Records
---
Amino acid sequence: MVRSIWALVLVLFLGACGGGGSTASSPETYPTTAGDVARALAWSGSPIDATISYINTDAVEPGEHWVGDVTVGNEAGSITAVVTERFIPIVSFRYHGTARRLNDDARDELEAVVRRAFKVWTSYLESDRYGNPSGEFLVEVGASCGSNSDAIACATRVGELNVPTMYIPDTTVELVQGGVSISVFGTLAHEVGHMLGYDDNRYLPGTQPHAPSFTGQLMAPRLGDSTTVTPQYDDLVGVGGSYRYATDPAASDHFGWWLELNPQRSNLRRFGAKVTRILVVDEDIDGIALAQGIEADALVSDFIKVAAFVDGIPTPAERVPHLGSARWNGGLFAVDTRTFQPVFGDVALVANLDALSIQAAFNNFEAYDGSTQEWANWREAFLSYTLRPVRGSDVWSDGRAIDARFFARQITNAHPVEPAGLIAGRLNDTRVDITGAYAAGRSN
């Protein structure tokens, strides 16, 4: 997606390309010692908490509908919003028979536990996939497992709609109402392994693919005293024919939206929002937990962490000139913390530095709707804040939702360094559920 407004705004960051081909000089870097830089990057004095973890009640996948790289063009070149690719399954549900009568809360609960059963695998899987290029999966709720009438669930690599499919019988649907035991959760995670194409023919060539019972792997035929409900290394090897996997799940769980700026032109390096999905399974799960039917919610924790950030070396307060009235224009990269989908917007800041106030106004919001996979107007049309300096620091803030700092920039070699050429900061307004970062270039 290309937002044309950024073509007007970000040229303020980088400037127009000159015709002489000269090399740009870096603006003056004001902090002169390691201690100065450390204090500058620590945002000392800022009252804004810009890293927040949310309980992911519905087990949503924040990356499920995020588009790829967003390139913004201007006269100086292009800047890219970075999305770290990882595998996000597209899971659809169909309801049959008596399961059609489930109310919305019951459906949400069932679907959440199935999504978490996928997550114990997909935390390790990278974006490249060979056996299922579309990344689509289907869950048939209230469907029979055929002759295996006692099964909690069953799965196949190719179902009716030609995608990997899981079948959850009516008996299991009734069982999970009011709580999902860890044994049921482990069974669902096991069936997801089959949907992902688990095949370990080192042990059982030419048969239903399972790991031997003695291994205690998730893909063993039955959950036992030594069985885990998360994939072990050999389980991941078993899906390696269809998916590229990582041994460290955290390495593939960071993604988000941010801008990398030209380091030769300003002391601001990048700004934006990072998103991390975190699924924690209690390491103490054992046969006692399985036998006693302890609920999965007590042992499986699902979070999403959103962190707004600004990287760079801000201008010390004593070097910010008294500009009287001045204006900065720029943009916002943020996350809607209800849906965990991206939100873009524009920002205008008007400062009266003699009166020690900055008015920040955000508008022209665009949000990505995961259900329609389209961009549309966000639910808020306008946000406004008044910032004042935080005593004893170089931070400005409204004390609740937003902070700001000044950064030096140099538009071209022919221009002097502007100590207050850029303003950048973080926005975390819990009243409207948005967290992100913004930057703006002085326009007068």
---
Amino acid sequence: MLDKFKIKNILKKTEYFYNRSDYDNALIFCNKALNLDSRNIYALYVKSRIMYIQSHYDLSLELLDEILKIEENHDKALLLKGRICLELNYSKQGFECYANFLNNNTDFNLFFNEITYFSFSDDNSKKKLALDLCNLYLEKYDSYEINVWKSQLLYRLNLLEDALFGLNNLINIKGDDEYLYSIKTQVLIKLGKYEDALTLADYSFKLYHNYGFLYDKAESLFALGDYESSKEICNEILGSQNRIYDNSAKFLIAKIYFAEKDYDKSLMEINDAIILLRNIVDEDSQSDEYGSSFNQYYFFKAEILFKLNELDKSDEIMDCLIEKEEDAKYYCLKAKILYEMNDYEASLKFVDKTLDLDSNCSHAKSLKKQIEKQI
């Protein structure tokens, strides 16, 4: 009786420290509890969580196996073991744990938490695991929410035809839905179905007055070559009280002027777009979405500067972008800049880097022929 009372107090302290992310002290009290009761499931689970957080995956798995010997369908142990196994590429064991969870538990939120965990990774292989978890859930249960999430994942993984198929099925079930329409317009734009995207964006904006649809409309018109109408809509967005799409509208106007070969105006607009984006988020943000937006804007600025023959400025931007990540289009523009600077050997190195990443890049192939004539 005394030990039970003592363990209860120890576990309270364990929980206190664990909830405050003081894992060293939480671990001390876990071990104290386990010295009194080696089969205490709560202490074993908290210790396994701490081992996982500290990247001691093998130790965490050992503790989780101990829990599952005591309680074979322990929900949280199955989920954590499944997660660790997938992260260590033990796919078969991982999905078996998740399947066992679904066979014995109907807690949607616990399972959905695992899907979102893998979904928000910057790594596409993790997003694919999230997609597999969606499919695993849908094999057993029908879920509108999981189907919506699945469609979003398909879009983010660029599996656009599958995403469109899923979205159409969901819209047939649900009818008008702002969120589904927002994903569908983006899918249609990426698929190059601009007329369909324009029709849906126009309908959705009238229905919901969401400026995201108005921007989708402007983007579709730009792709269809109707620059004036696209510019008018961008200016309507900029003149509204809605500030969310200001930087995107400025970027699209910059692209319109670029397409019209008015590079000076294009440069002014992209500079405005960068300033507006900085007002939303810090340039060093770790956010995948905003980080990629900054890269996209600066790359476009480098392209404009290249057209304006401001090669040093364009080159400086490209050096910064290349330092952040490997990308065929970055290497290709860098090669073109160096070629115009008459540094043919350096240009050739970046052409080869471009072709290593994208063997079908026509610009790089053409530039290589030009360089070979010069060397």
